[in-house]
TrEMBL record:
Alphabetized UniProt keyword annotations: DNA-binding
Species of provenance: Luteibacter sahnii
Lineage: Bacteria, Pseudomonadati, Pseudomonadota, Gammaproteobacteria, Lysobacterales
Domain Arc-like DNA binding: 2-44
Superkingdom of this protein's organism: Bacteria
Any Pfam family: Arc
Protein name in the entry: Arc family DNA-binding protein
Statement: the UniProt record of this protein carries the keyword DNA-binding: yes
Gene Ontology MF terms in the entry: DNA binding
SUPFAM superfamilies associated with the record: Ribbon-helix-helix
Residue span of region Disordered: 124-145
Length: 145
């Protein structure tokens, strides 16, 4: 922001001011830069001009559907969904578990392939020991003997 930009003074509730400070710090911005960014973003959002009756019907329908879903689910199912589906932490945990499982499967496969190779070598060595090689000095039995 340039010093030539107009200065605007206004009052905001204390809790909103605290939220603004935290957001500015999290985004590495000054409070002014955070305010400007958020205002600019708000003007980019589409403005919906809907009939209030339609909006009320849609909201009521949404709430009724949510209540029906919750009524059909147990407390544990709701808690599971909230912890797994609706939180980024749950998704990260699932990705980590998948990566760990995949790594363990790859390690097991490598161990199995090594074991197969070891078995092949052992079988081959056993076959070589079982079949005696003929030496060139060995005399073949003839039909006259």
């Amino acid at each position: 922001m340039a010093r030539t930009d107009p200065q605007v003074n206004f009052r905001i509730p204390l809790d909103l001011n605290e939220k603004l400070k935290r957001a500015a710090a999290a985004n590495n911005r000054s409070i002014t830069a955070e305010l400007v960014h958020r205002l600019e973003q708000s003007f980019k959002l589409p403005v919906l001009h809907a009939d209030p009756a339609v909006v009320e019907w849609a909201m009521t329908d949404f709430v009724e559907r949510q209540e029906k879903i919750h009524a059909e689910m147990s407390e544990n199912e709701i808690a599971d969904l909230q912890s797994i589906v609706f939180t980024d932490h749950g998704l990260r945990a699932l990705r980590e578990q998948l990566a760990e499982t995949q790594a363990a499967a790859e390690e097991s496969l490598a161990t199995l392939l090594k074991s197969v190779e070891d078995i092949k070598r052992a079988v081959s060595a056993a076959e070589r020991k079982r079949v005696p090689k003929r030496s060139s000095n060995s005399r073949k039995p003839s039909s006259s003997d």
